[in-house]
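For consistency, the fold was encoded as tokens, which produced the following:
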Amino acid sequence: MNINSGDWCMFNAIDLTGVVRIEARISARNTAEKTIEVRVGSTTGALLGTITFPGTGRSTYATAYGNLDTSNVSGTQDLYFVFSGGFNVNWFYLETESLSVSDNIKDDQISYYPNPVSNNVTVLIPTSKFSHYSIFDISGRVNKQGVITSEMQKMNIDLSNFSKGIYLISLKGNQLTKTFKLVKN
């Protein structure tokens, strides 16, 4: 996506529950500082946070991060990104925090492979704390959902009909969510 100063984009009905940070893969045209304001409701709505990053040069991509304060919003909201400076965006990713410290599962206890994936992804789950999974595209649209049974420790998910791009796999249980990035070739 080629972005100019003053441009903005909106993502419909994004669940902001537990969202604490945004990550973006960006290539800036020059070395001047650029920003992305993350707002809720409109381009002038409540400011949740800002990503600020230096220019990288046209063909060099870098990952930039920004903390988000979602304490004054709840549930599903329309999310607006307001841009300052000229750059290209490869992808955005919203990061959530665990809802319960006692139920926290380390990311290294859950694994998935291959990544990037062509047809099937295998997810290894060493715990029965998850009840279902969802796979989202970069716009937040659910592309696939399924149930995780308590005896399941390994899932093979067919992604052969998915388009190339960045996806998020979200494993959910009672007061616990783990989300991982997946690249589809």
